[in-house]
Amino acid sequence: MAKIVKSLKDLDVPFNFHYPAGATIVTSRANNRDNAMAVAWHTALSRDPAFYAVSISPKRFTHSMIAETGEFVVNFMPVEQGELVALVAGCSGRDVDKLSAFQIAAHPGSQVKAPVLEKAFAAYECRVTERHTYGDHDLFVGEIMAVQFEPSLFQEGGRLDMERIAPIVYMGGDWYASPGKETYYLDRKGLMDAVLGKPAQPASP
Amino acid sequence: MAKIVKSLKDLDVPFNFHYPAGATIVTSRANNRDNAMAVAWHTALSRDPAFYAVSISPKRFTHSMIAETGEFVVNFMPVEQGELVALVAGCSGRDVDKLSAFQIAAHPGSQVKAPVLEKAFAAYECRVTERHTYGDHDLFVGEIMAVQFEPSLFQEGGRLDMERIAPIVYMGGDWYASPGKETYYLDRKGLMDAVLGKPAQPASP
Q1: pTM exceeds 0.90
Q2: Is the interface score ipTM higher than 0.85?
Q3: Is the Cβ pair B18, A22 closer than 8 Å?
């Protein structure tokens, strides 16, 4: 790689090197108002107990709603809903009642009051257990109280059936993409054995 | 969505609903040994100052190396390096000197001693500022001390040139995918104006 930049302030391009990332919609509900926000800064944190985290700027309306209620839902979206993701990303819940204005079909979570979007292929209902400020964003750590998903879309091993559904990923700016139908099976055990010339010890789970 | 599961223990499929996620390789160096690990649980945390985080089980060799040195590098990989990602995922640095066994070309970071992989299209050199245990994993919060990237691969707006490079994403199990060449531009401002029937206020950055 040809270029090394020590400070993001010296970068002549945005902080987008880490994309693609899933273009999720994070929903919240407070004071009888639902809200939705596009979030690309998110990650699984733990399997048992199950934790998921979202990183949200204190400037965002969603931040105040999650801070108040301690609840949020992460909705995983198909690329067919790209325009919805862009609409949700384009404005603040302070100015627009997004679920109403964009006619977003949703139902309350089973364990939290925040809405689960009908068009999501899976959703995590989360209750905040911790919140940490890291730089200009806060990380909301959520225990996953329930998973909602369409079972027919998930194949053996929990793999999304890409023949039937294409998840949307965010590429930075107003750019999105999707893995489409092509997936690659990489036989890590076979590869290991071939390269090392002996049966490999698997890494700890 | 048809199914609601309250505990991951009751799930008959793995905890893979949140994929795709970038299939990164996280590198570390301690006691004159380089190591590499495949990591799909990672996210940006902050822009200014720039922070990036990786979630790693205490069982992993990489965990002990980062804990000891307080440094790591997140390497963002193209799909052409899928076999390397699978090899790195398939074994532990306790058993295999992966950079040597898999002939991984790398050079030391400019600000940290952990190696930067030659085949990465971008890499974040990170110094740990905080570490938090969330469930069965620890989150290492790293301040980005330097960004390495190939400038010709990043277009205006910081968008990866998908005509030239296809990033690899992880789908769970031994399955991977890539967005390929097709990207979608979604004009959030235009969409907003059309749906709301008036010029929209942008959300806070």
Answers
A1: yes
A2: yes
A3: yes
